[in-house]
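Quick question, first post here. What does this chain look like in 3D?
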Amino acid sequence: MCKDMSPLEKAIQFHGHICPGLLMGVRAAELALEYLQVDLDQDDDLAAIVETNFCGVDAIQAILGCTFGKGNLYFRDYGKIVYTIFSRKKQQAIRIAQRFEALDDPNTKRYLALRFQEQLTTEEEAELEDLLALSFEWIMSQPLERLFHWRQVDVPELNKAEITPSVQCHKCGEGVLKNKAVLTDDSLLCPECRLSMEG
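> Answer (accepted):
Ran it through. Tokens below.
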């Protein structure tokens, strides 16, 4: 990704399109950077715990550089639009939670209602584009306290990504990280095969 891109451009390129969820992630990343006062050139300094797998997480990845591949993105499937961003170097962390009423703007609400409709008329498709533009302006211009609650939290005790060798599952033959393999009485299994034997 081009380093000269703005954070918003990076997020849109990474995600593939603009939507309210992505824009909220952009604003959350903006808040984290402002709060933590970090240098994004420090590749492994920032890490994030995300509690959803919605669009905003792509902004966290694109802007803050927190990814599964680098081992500095942790997913907790709580179904909450909450991000805990922390600097390992500064030993500071912020927990950012989207306000329940954050997207109560009438244009954004109408956009989301249409977006999840199965079929749209030609007029509704045109309206959807107009509503997205209005929603974009609204989300990007709101004060951060209108969109989020946040507070300082303790830096979580999380291990950095561990690089381990792969071993072969004796049942399916696929490779599995050694630290994820399950040793049974007579074989080494991947977690999936182990679960299938129990079920």
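The CA atoms of residues 25 and 57 lie 6 Å apart.
DSSP finds seven helices and nine strands in the chain.
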